[in-house]
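Morning F.,

Quick status update on the modeling queue. The single chain you submitted on Monday has been processed. Sequence for confirmation:
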Amino acid sequence: MQLEAQMKIKNEKNMYQYLKENSYWFKNLNRNQDLTKEFFEAMKDMYHLRTTDKINDAIDNIDLVSSFLSAFKA
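Structure tokens below.
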């Protein structure tokens, strides 16, 4: 694995945690350095760090607040 990729993983809390939980990525990244992008995408998918996930969470929160307001209004 390239040194800069190692440093980036070590400095990012979520990436390092994902690597510890899914140790097979050690082998994959050491054998093929081109898989770093796939590793980052898998980590984002696992921890719901994508933009669409954040938008969905915001919509869910708005729906929750509107439900509370409608319940108190009635």
